[in-house]
C-alpha cells in the first residue's frame, strides 16, 4: 500500500486542527453569548426554547432548537462579516437578497417585490384598481361627512427617482408602473392623490434626494416633499418653512439601513437643514401602541394653529421637524402598509383633526386593494 506523502498528511492535519480549533472557539463564544438584535438583518435572534412540557412542544423542539443554534452559533457575526466582504469585494454583488448593488456604490432595496416593481412586472389588474379606488373611497367617506379634507401622498421608491443608478443588467418593461396606474385612476375619478415624483426629480439638481446607503429620502428630499404637501392643503394662512438648498449644510454621518442589510460598516455623510431660530420649538410625546401594528405620537406648537392627523410609515420621520413647526398639533399615526378603515376611522373620530394626510411608500401601493377584503372581518 503506497504511503501518503508527508506534505499531504501535514495539509490534512492542519485542516482538521483548524476546523477543531474554530469549532471549539465558536462553542466557547456561544456559551457567553446573550440575546441580541441583529441590526443588519433587522430582527431579534431566536431565543433558546424552554424545556418542552407538552407533546406539541416536544414535536417542535428540534426545529426550534435548530433555529436557536443557527442564530446563536459562536462567531456568527464574524462569519457573516467575512461572507459580506468576500461577496462584495471579490464577487461584486450583494450578500443579501434584500439589497441590490447599483452603480457608483449606490444600494437599492430589493424586498417587498421592489425589483419586480422597478421592472414594471407587477401591474395592477382591473380588480385591484377597482379595490384601490374602493379603499380610498372608504377612507374618505366619514371624513367628507365631517367636512374634514383628506390627502393621500405616495412617496416614490428610490429606484423610481434614480433609475440611472440601477444596474444596467436589469431591463424594464414599458410603463405603466403601479404608481402610474394609481395616478391615472386618481385623475379620472378626482381622488386626492399627491404624486411626488416630479418634485423629487427636479430637486435632484440641487442635492441628493435619497441616501445612497439607505432606502429613505435625505433631509433635502423630505423638505421638498413637505413643501409639495403644504402646497396641496386646502387650509388658509399656513406658516410654511421657506428654505433653499444652501441651508442644508450641517454635515451628519448616517448608517444606512441598506448598508446594514448588506453587512457593510460604512457610513454616509449627508447634509441636514439649518432651521430658523424664530420658528416653533415644538414639544413631542412618545409613541404609544393603539392597535395591531399601529401607534400614535403627537407634537405641539403653541405659535401655530390647526390640528392635523398624519398617517405614515418610516418616511414620516424626516418630515416631523417640518410638519410639527407648521401646525398647532400633529397627531402622528405610525403603521406599515395601508390599514383598513375600520382600524383608522375610530382614531380620526376620536381625535377630530382639521384634516388628515396619509402617506404611503410606492412599494406598498398594493396594500390598498388588500384592505377591501379585510374590512368585513
Write structural notes for this entry.
The chain is an alpha/beta fold and 377 residues long. It is 40% helix and 18% strand. The chain has helices at 6-31, 55-72, 76-90, 114-118, 126-145, 158-161, 178-189, 197-203, 219-232, 257-261, 320-323, 341-351, 366-374; strands at residues 37-38, 43-44, 99-101, 107-109, 150-155, 193-195, 248-254, 268-273, 283-291, 294-300, 307-312, 329-335, 355-361. Strands 6-5-13-11-12-10-9 form a 7-stranded mixed β-sheet, with helices on both faces. A two-stranded antiparallel sheet has the order 1-2. The longest helix is centred in the first third of the chain and has 26 residues, at 6-31. The chain is globular, with a radius of gyration of 25 Å. The model has no long low-confidence stretch (mean pLDDT 88).
Order of helices and strands: HEEHHEEHHEHHEHHEHEEEEHEHEH
Coarse morphology: globular
**Total DSSP E strands:** 13
**Helices and strands: which structural class?**
alpha/beta
Low-confidence stretches: none
Mean pLDDT: 88
- Helices, by number, come to 13
Amino acid at each position: 500500500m503506497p504511503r501518503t506523502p508527508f506534505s499531504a498528511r501535514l495539509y490534512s492535519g492542519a485542516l482538521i486542527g483548524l476546523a477543531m480549533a474554530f469549532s471549539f472557539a465558536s462553542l466557547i463564544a456561544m456559551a457567553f453569548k446573550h440575546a441580541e438584535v441583529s441590526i443588519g438583518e433587522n430582527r431579534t435572534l431566536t431565543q433558546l426554547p424552554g424545556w418542552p412540557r407538552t407533546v406539541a412542544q416536544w414535536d417542535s423542539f428540534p426545529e426550534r432548537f435548530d433555529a436557536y443554534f443557527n442564530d446563536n452559533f459562536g462567531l456568527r457575526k464574524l462569519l457573516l462579516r467575512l461572507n459580506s466582504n468576500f461577496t462584495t469585494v471579490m464577487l461584486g454583488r450583494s450578500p443579501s437578497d434584500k439589497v441590490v448593488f447599483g452603480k457608483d456604490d449606490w444600494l437599492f432595496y430589493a424586498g417587498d417585490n421592489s425589483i419586480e416593481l422597478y421592472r414594471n412586472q407587477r401591474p395592477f389588474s382591473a380588480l385591484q384598481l377597482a379595490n384601490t379606488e374602493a379603499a380610498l373611497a372608504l377612507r374618505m367617506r366619514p371624513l367628507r361627512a365631517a367636512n374634514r379634507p383628506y390627502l393621500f401622498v405616495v412617496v416614490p421608491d428610490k429606484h423610481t427617482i434614480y433609475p440611472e443608478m440601477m444596474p444596467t443588467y436589469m431591463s424594464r418593461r414599458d410603463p405603466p408602473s403601479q404608481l402610474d396606474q394609481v395616478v391615472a385612476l386618481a385623475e379620472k375619478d378626482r381622488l386626492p392623490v399627491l404624486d411626488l415624483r416630479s418634485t423629487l426629480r427636479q430637486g435632484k439638481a440641487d442635492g441628493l434626494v435619497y441616501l445612497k446607503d439607505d432606502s429613505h429620502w435625505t433631509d433635502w428630499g423630505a423638505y421638498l416633499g413637505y413643501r409639495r404637501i403644504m402646497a396641496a392643503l386646502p387650509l388658509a394662512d399656513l406658516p410654511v418653512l421657506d428654505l433653499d438648498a444652501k441651508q442644508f449644510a450641517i454635515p451628519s454621518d448616517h448608517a444606512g439601513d441598506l448598508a446594514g442589510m448588506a453587512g457593510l460598516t460604512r457610513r454616509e455623510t449627508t447634509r441636514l437643514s439649518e432651521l430658523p431660530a424664530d420658528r416653533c420649538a415644538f414639544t413631542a410625546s412618545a409613541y404609544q401602541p393603539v392597535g395591531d401594528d399601529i401607534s400614535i405620537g403627537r407634537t405641539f406648537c403653541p405659535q401655530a394653529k390647526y390640528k392635523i392627523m398624519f398617517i405614515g410609515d418610516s418616511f414620516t420621520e424626516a418630515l416631523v421637524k417640518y410638519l410639527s413647526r407648521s401646525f398647532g398639533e400633529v397627531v402622528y399615526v405610525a403603521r406599515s402598509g395601508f390599514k383598513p378603515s375600520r382600524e383608522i376611522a375610530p382614531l380620526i373620530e376620536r381625535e377630530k383633526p382639521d384634516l388628515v394626510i396619509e402617506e404611503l411608500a410606492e412599494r406598498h401601493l398594493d396594500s390598498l386593494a388588500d384592505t377591501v377584503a379585510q374590512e368585513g372581518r
